[in-house]
Amino acid sequence: MCVLLAYEAPANSMIVRLSTAFSSDDTLEIHILFHELITEAFRNNYASGNIWQNYLTHFILSNENFFSLACERRDPPQGSLRDIGLHDFEVFMRLFALDNEHMHYIDHFVGDENQTSPVCEISKAIDDTHSSRKIYDIVTRWYKNHGVGYFSTRKAFRYDGKNFIALNNSDVGDVRLDDLVGYEAQKSELRANTEAFISGKPANNVLLYGDGGTGKSTSVKALLNEYFADGLRVIELYKHQFRDIQSITGRLRQRNYKFILFIDDLSFEENESDYKYLKAVIEGGIETKPDNILIYATSNRRHIVREIWKDRDDMEHNGDIHRSDTVEEKLSLASRFGIAINYSSPRRESYHEIVRTLARKSGLYVDDKELISGADRWEIRHGGMTGRAARQYVDYLSGRDVK
After folding, report:
1. Is the four-CA dihedral 331, 335, 341, 347 of positive or negative sign?
2. In this predicted structure, what is the pLDDT of residue 311?
């Protein structure tokens, strides 16, 4: 029985059920459990190698308890806590070596590149050693360098009101900042702020604003891919969750990661007031925002909250100064972002260069005059000259095997 991990305790746990099925030689139950193991493996991207060993490895890397969280925040514990941990890894080693005549069904999966994860690498490293002390070192080193739980192996998350739900890494893609053609000044400022953040230096919340389809959201995804190994994680939030932000930041405060709370397409209509919750968290609330959390938001509006002409009826006259309290209240949210980066639609020459660059990267070698002529016709029907329109046009050509 494990003291810290306690994964043998529940009567319906996979380990207890499988051990019972092996003991009774219940072939039907064994195959049902193997089906569940394989389903979990594909769901969590570790369907490569020994599925049983990967399942155990995934569990131990994901199990948040006072031992694993202590390892995440500091060096491995000493004294009694260390001894308890070593005991648990001895139990883990015996479970890892569990054998049965049916195990051949799940002990040698050949996965593809989309079904591998760090879990497979750690599982293989554990399989190569037969020492509980070495397993202890492998796992606690992982806790220290990468953290524990889903945060250790996944890049992006959403919040369902109670828990952080991990998104598959494939949902984020593998886009990099260099893949976003142009916008060099914008990318440089965004990169500098993010690098300061993950280095523990002062950094600002960021508002990326401007025309649709210019790469604002793509830039944030690219940051996540480039700095994931440095502990950067992204949690996507929606407007209806702003009232939960204090709770969210409280749960992330003590974790050994750098979190970006990402709000895509942020805007408020005149009758919406939930922006006040966001404003209080960014700056000005009694409880300060943790140092390991920043807010990055994208918006098509520079000032986020919609202004209407009647707002200007609320005037205060002070000599030659005219001041509207209502307007100031609405504009104050945008001013809370320390950095505001403008992504405007490119001029025609820049749009053409984006098309050329994307075409080369996609292996398209079309006559330049024909390529640009087609791009101009495309942007007229597809929302104007934007990076998104350029990508859609190149994908359109690629899908028709244009060479």
Report:
1. positive
2. 46
The answer to whether residues 210 and 301 touch, using CB atoms and an 8 Å cutoff, is no
Around Cβ 400, how many Cβ atoms within 10 Å? 8
CA angle 378, 212, 237 (to 5 degrees): 140
Residue 96 and residue 128: Cα distance in Å, rounded? Answer: 11
Q: Answer for the pair 215, 183: CB distance below 8 angstroms, yes or no.
A: yes
pLDDT of residue 212: 83
Residue 134 · residue 212 · CB < 8 Å = no
Tens digits of residue pLDDT in 257-300: 999 999 888 876 666 666 666 766 676 555 567 889 999 988 87
∠ CA 135-137-143, rounded to 5°: 105
**Tens digits of residue pLDDT in 50-80:** 889 999 898 888 888 888 888 887 777 788 8
* Mean pLDDT, the chain, integer: 80
Burial classification of residue 51, based on how many CB atoms lie within 10 Å of its CB (0-12 exposed, 13-18 middle, 19 or more buried): buried
> The whole model's pTM is what?
0.72
Helices 66-73 and 132-146, axial angle in degrees (round to 10) = 60
Most confident listed range (10-14, 265-269, 330-334): 265-269
Instruction: Give the other-Cβ count within 10 Å of 258's Cβ.
Output: 22
Residues 346 and 37: their CA atoms lie apart, in Å, by 50
* Nearest to 232, CA basis, from 172, 289, 285: 172
Radius of gyration from C-alpha coordinates of the chain: 26
Amino acid at the residue 190: L
Q: How many residues does the chain have?
A: 403
User: Phi and psi for 298 in degrees, rounded to 5?
Assistant: -115, 150
Round to whole Å and give the CA distance between 78 and 108: 37
Q: At 210, is the secondary structure helix, strand, or coil?
A: strand
Higher pLDDT, 31 or 112: 31
* Burial of 255 per CB tally in 10 Å (0-12, 13-18, 19+): buried
Non-local (6+) Cβ contacts of 377 within 8 A are none
Quote the CA–CA distance of 71 and 85 in Å, as a whole number: 11
